[in-house]
Structures are given as C-alpha cells and as structure tokens.
Specification:
With 170 residues, the protein is mainly β. The protein has a domain at 47-114 and 121-144: Sandwich (Immunoglobulin-like), CATH 2.60.40. Helix content is 8%, strand content 34%. It contains one helix and eleven strands. The protein has one helix at 2-15, and strands at 47-50, 56-57, 62-67, 73-78, 81-87, 93-98, 103-112, 118-121, 125-129, 144-147, 166-169. The strands form three sheets. Strands 2, 4, 5, 7, 8 and 9 form a six-stranded mixed beta sheet that branches. A three-stranded antiparallel beta sheet has the order 1-3-6, with no helix packed on it. The longest helix has 14 residues, at 2-15. Mean pLDDT is 82; it is low at 1-18.
Length: 170
C-alpha cells in the first residue's frame, strides 16, 4: 500500500503540478467531467383550482390557476395538446393563460422537475368554449389551429429552429 501512495505522489511532483500556486485552467490535455445525479421525481400532483369543472366560456384565452410544489415546471394540456408551461411560484401557485378549442375542453396540469422527471397529473377539469354568434347566426370567433408533432426542451441560443407545422381554420 505504501508503494502505491508513493507512486501516485511522484508523478505529481515530477510534473511540477505540486506546488504551483495558480495553475492556469483549462490545461492542455486535461479532461472535464460533469454529471447529473437524479433525485426522486415529483410525487405530488398539481391541482387546477380555476376554472372549475363544468364552467362555460365565450372568450378565449382563459386563465388557468392552481397549486403546485414551488420550483417545479407546470405544463397545461387542453384535450391532451400542450398549451403552455410556467414555473411554480414560491407561494406554491401557478397561473397561465391558455386557449380553448370549440366545444368541450379537458384541462390537465402536469409537473416535472429541472431534470425532466415527471410527477403525477392533476385531476381533469372539463370546460366548454361556446364562442359568440352574430345576429345572422354565424360564429364570430374563427379559430386558427397551428399543429406540429415536434417538441423542443431547449435550443442553442441565437440558432434558428426549423420544424413543420399544419395550419387549419382561420
């Protein structure tokens, strides 16, 4: 064992690394390591407090608010379509504006931590979007839907992102 320790110390002394007061970093030939040690995923589901189940709206977007664990990312889904996200505030609440589809909309909130580990989903809240109708009976609000099968968690700053979309309505 003593021989092993001496062998480990000698290369440091010979190379001059031992005793340098301010080595310049990064040094040529050096290797950097980084890693992530995942903790437990979130265990508490968020709750949607507003709107309430069965509520009807004639304007969109609407405000969705509720409770969550501080620091987690809250994602809102409308009819299983991603509608937006926000960070849960220090007072364990979230608020986000989201659009609605014509007719029935099932809202759900999902949480995830900074590592992308998902927690349980909120109980669903079902609301209805009944847009206003003109005197002639025609819907005043014409929806434009933009859909894509691509999602991003992030992108390099200043770099363009290109992905296909489908447009319908309007």
């Amino acid at each position: 064992m003593f021989g092993t320790v001496v062998m480990a110390i000698i290369p440091l002394w010979v190379s001059g690394a031992w005793g340098q007061s301010n080595p310049e970093n990064p040094q040529e030939g050096s290797v950097g390591l980084s890693g992530v040690v995942p903790g437990e995923p979130p265990s508490q589901a968020p709750a949607i407090n507003s709107p309430v189940d069965g509520q009807t709206f004639n304007q969109t977007p609407i405000e969705v608010s509720g409770t969550c664990r501080s620091g987690l990312i809250v994602e809102i889904y409308t009819n299983d379509v991603f509608a937006g996200s926000t960070v849960c505030r220090d007072n364990n609440t979230f608020t986000i504006d989201t659009g609605l589809f014509f007719g029935e909309n099932v809202l759900r909130a999902r949480v995830q931590d900074a590592l992308g580990q998902e927690g349980p989903e909120s109980d669903p809240v079902t609301v209805t979007y009944d847009p206003p109708v003109s005197e002639s009976g025609q819907q005043i609000d014409q929806q434009l839907l933009i859909q894509s099968d691509v999602s991003f968690r992030g992108a390099p700053p200043g770099q363009p992102i290109t992905f296909p979309v489908r447009l319908s309505g309007g």
